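User: structure tokens for this one?
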Amino acid sequence: MNWRVGAVLLVLVLLGQGCSRYSEERVYKAVHEKLVGLESYSCTADIYVKGNKQPGQFKIKQWFRVPGMYRLEVLEPAVMQGKTTVFDGSRIWVYYPYIDQVVLLENADSETDENLFLGFFLRDMLETEDIRCSFGQLDKAEVLVIELPVPGNSKYRSVQRLFVNRKDLRPLRLEMYDIKGEVTARVDFSDFQFNPKLDDDFFDKDKIGISMFYEDWDPSGMFFGSIEEAGEYLDFSPLWMYYLPEGFTNEVIQVVENGGKKALIAAYSSDDKNLVLLQKMMGRGEGDLFQSGELIYLDDKPAFYSERQDVRKISWTEGNIRVQLVGNLTRRTLADIARNIK
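Assistant:
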């Protein structure tokens, strides 16, 4: 039996047994129809996690596709902005933008983040008969509250509750409680979208270093097979890379649109070496914002060079196009490639 259908049918039976006798049958029917049709979702999540000394608070963009693939992109705090976690169904990959590196968490499993997702809450409903529900209010909204135990018998996360808006059936909050009944984690959902299109590229570790956070993202239409194809979608003529070290192959060509502007990202790799070329059209007055690092010259063209650990970056302007070349190659090799981008 499909796990989503089975979970919903079980919940509906238990809801009828465990909820108030004043429950409205139409609410259960609506919940059934909504959950049976859940294939994927996206949302913005404000997360609170109780810590030993002080609580952690985060704002993330969250995507999920059944049976258990997910992607998290940190929006706040600023120091962690862009950190992205992808679970492809078997392994967890994490991208750290501040060092421009992707790391495979060999000894981790998806349970690290599972309590943050509605999708795993629904899975847990299928695996237990200990379900309780009630009607109440949350920030003046009439809600259906579904409660069930957290698998694993952890004293820090013993019970979980999902708060669903009775009017539009959108999840509003997911809470975790310890064995004393105190909240240890809370997820407040906003901008919740049922069944956005999320194909396999979205959970591909080779594309994890490329931010996919922007409105109306269409994964099937934003990756391209060549620069020529991508150029037809851009609002500027892209520059070309006329020199690439031997052994490098193109891995990703993507056009990102955010805030009304389009950027072209081309990623290349060779064994443990990687290289990313980013191009975007600058707005009026943006030039000075990018002048940071050591001033160098690419022949007679001024540019700025910076590095952090083994990640190096060269940035410059070409007319009204802002260009950034980032990789873990040597400074000399990176400069040679930059000189041949025209």
